[in-house]
Every structure is written in structure tokens, then in C-alpha cells.
Amino acid sequence: MKLTTxxxxxxxxxxxxxxxxxxxxVLMENAAREVFLALDTLVExxxxxxxxxxxxxxxxxxxxxxxxxxxxxxGGRPKVFVxxxxxxxxxxxxxxxxxxxxxxxxxxxxxxxxxxxxLLVVLKTADGVVDGLLGTGFHGQLRPxxxxxxxxxxxxxxxxxxxxxxxxxxxxxxxxxDVAVAASMTVTLGTPKWGLMFAPGAVYCGKLLSDGIGIPxxxxxxPKIRQELLRxxxxxxxxxxxxxxxHKGSCGRILVIAGSRGMTxxxxxxxxxxxxxxxxxxxxACPESxxxxxxxxxxxxxxxxxxxxGSGHFSLDNAEELxxxxxxxxxxxxxxxxxxxxxxxxxxxxxxxxxxxPVVLDADGIYAFREQGELLAKCxxxxxxxxxxxxxxxxxxxxxxxxxEDLLDLGREAAKEYNTVFVIKSETTVIVYPDGTAYVxxxxxxxxxxxxxxxxxxxxxxGLYKQVAEGRQPLAGVYIHSRAGExxxxxxxxxxxxxxxxxxxxxxxxxxxxxxx
Length: 517
What we know:
Number of helices: 21
Distance between the termini: 21 Å
CATH superfamily of the largest domain: Ribokinase
CATH topology of the largest domain: UDP-N-acetylmuramoyl-L-alanine:D-glutamate ligase
CATH class of the largest domain: Alpha Beta
Helix content: 40-55%
Radius of gyration: 27 Å
Number of domains: 2
CATH architecture of the largest domain: 3-Layer(aba) Sandwich
Shape: elongated
Structural class: alpha/beta
Number of strands: 17
Strand content: 5-15%
Oligomer: single chain
């Protein structure tokens, strides 16, 4: 499913109207019908219910006006409150505004204090609210009157259905500068908007529904739109069948370089995930003084101890040996639990610069390139980096708020400049490729906010190297990891730990094989 920016959706609307010939008022009518149907479900039947409709003077308000007509026709009792000058309405909004006025539906313009008093009275007895105030055009800070209206709606504590975007949420990034309508449900029109995948916007949306409102499918799926929602059906398509004559060496030979004193668990989780998701051979390279720990914790994963003079850390002295060892593997996962000692960071940079083998970089492996991302462009293969927001911001030399403000464009610029695939982790994970293609995964849950889950993800991506179509391993890894977290949450809730997610990887792999079969 495609996700659009505000500009892209406006272009789709324009083409539907101008090139295809669908009148704008028809699209508005289709939107209003879907809003009504969603509201009917939300309030468990509109008939006899008091519905407060808040509307602006743009097309979002026009959708609300048309929805008010459907509510009245179904036996509901809508009361419409308009914020803004009615003489400034868009043409299509004005058509539907005049219709509801001619029908005798009660309409109030929020111009004077007595109108606001009427709003508060209506909210006290209403059964639900339709929010058609601002729509996708909102950006920045709310006008005082809009803030007042939104705060009144939120304070009422009613079931709220927002049209397209909860008013106060920026559709391109999900940010809320001040306050936004806390919707119970949002019907987003045409395609889901990029920003509705991200907190806090995703939280304000409530349950998110999407409807194409009659726009031709070819426009909604235009290949020029390069953002997509990651779907399980796609993951199954990318999985490669194992031939009858396969063996452990043909199913993925993965070298994991990870861990340090005090962070042995990261190495265990990452290497265990690589093997647990189906790789044929996994070897953990580790500081020699920690090898006994890994030998005790790991059974199927082999270990490759390297000299550390008792320090429990990797250093530049290990680069030559591990570069030689890596040549016998299909892929190297580098970074989980390495620590941030300067000698370890120097080792990471030397290894990445010298290896001929594809690399996945996680955690401290990414930290080694902070504000030096241009070094990644020199890799012989396109590397995969799995930073959380803090690590990505550190890599780019900016703050996390600056990154969240423009995540899509900044991610694309970095992926192109550094010739890197980024798996940017937060409550919603974004996967960005050097060609600008971006995917979003909104799976998982709050229980996965626990130490070690990122190590499991990095290991899962690495372990899929020979099991998934070329270039699709990051996408498949993200989906499988998030779905494993959902299965773990069913059993453990917020008490789940990273090992619980790891243990569910095989179940998800089996689940994928059953999709559409």
C-alpha cells in the first residue's frame, strides 16, 4: 500500500479532477459517504444520535458538511459548527454547505461568544463528534480559535471521527506543535498519509481507516510514489524456496562480530537470532577473554576467539585476522555490544573499509561513523545500517527533534549520499534505500521497548541473507522481528524480554509460508 506526502496527494487529486474528469464535488461526496459509514460503526448506529460536526472552510470542511447530510438522512441529529469566514469557502465546500443549510440542519458560525457557549452545551449532550476542521493543509502552530475548538472537543471526552487527518497533526511527519484532536477513529482519504504512521500523529489518529474515494487505482499506485507500507504478503513473495540439495553452507554463512565485557548478551542475542531465523552457519567472533562465557551460553553458534590481552574488547590489532576470516562468509554483522572505546571504533572503521563481504552495522558499529557517514560510501557492497533515532541523529550530526521533523527527506538524502540502506528504528520503523524507495513498518508493540530487541533485529536481518530475494532482507527482517514481538506480547505483555522475541522467529517464518496458501 502506497503512502503519500501532502504534495503527492494533492497532485493525485488534481489529476483525478483535471485528467480523468471526476468532479471535485463527486470525490467529496464519496469521502463523506465513507466518513458516515465509519461514524455509524463508531457510535454504534447514527439513528437518533446527537452528532457535533466541527468544520473549517476548506475541502476538509466540505467533507464534514456532506457527512452531516448523510447523518441527518440516517435519522441522526447533527449540529454543525463552522470556524472561519463562510464567504471564503472553497467552491465544493460551499456547495455542500448550502445543501445542509437548505435542509434545515442547524449550523453555527463560531464568531461570537454565544456561539462558543452553544458549542459547549452541544458537546455536553452529544454522542459523537466529526472533525473536519483543518485537514492535510495544516502546518506549524494553531490559530488561537482553532486551539480553543480542539481543546473543547478533547475535554468533552466523546467518540471522535477525524476526516483525513486529526486536526492539529501535520500530515507529512506526524508532529503536533501544540495540541491536536484526539480521534477515536480517522478515515484517511485517497491513500494513508506518511505522517499518520508516526507518533504522536499515529496516537491521535486512533483506529486508522483508508478509502480511495473513487480515485482511479492507477493514480493511487503511481510508481513515482516511493513510500509503501510493509505488508506480510510482500514478505512471503520475497522468500526463496530451499532446493532439495541445499546444505548448511548454502543457507547462509554469517559471521557476527559483537560483544565486549559487560555486554556479552548483545552478541548472544544477535548471533542466536541469525541462526534462529534459519541461517545455515553462524560464527561469533569474540574477544578471547570472553570466549568461555559464549561457549557456555551458545550451543549451535560457533565461536572465533581473537586476542584481546584480557581487555574484553576488540582493537585495531584484530582487523587483519578478522578480515581474513570474513572472506569465508557470506555476510558480516558488526556492532552489537562492541562498546565505544576508541580502539574498538578504529577497528570497526578499518574492518568496514577493508572487507569484500557485505556488512550489516548495528549499535556501536554505527557509532564508529558518527558524523563520518561519507566513509560508508566507499564500501564495496551497499551496507545495511540499523540505527535507532538517537544513533541516526548522531550519525548525521543533528538532534533527534530535527530528525523527526523531516525523517523521510533526511533519511533519503543520507541513504543516497552514503550509498547505504537504513533501517531507522522507533515506534515505527522506516527502511530507506539509496534510490529513495522507503518502506514503513508499523507492527510491534510497546512491550518491545526493552534492551536487546535491536540486537535480535540485526541478527534476523543478517540471518536472512541467503533466504530472501536480494536487497529485500532488511524488509523481511523488520517484518518478521515485529511480528515475533507481537506473538511474544500475547504471552508476556509488557514483561517480554528480547529472548522472547528471538524464540518466536521460527513461528513467524512458518506463518509467512502459510500466507495466501
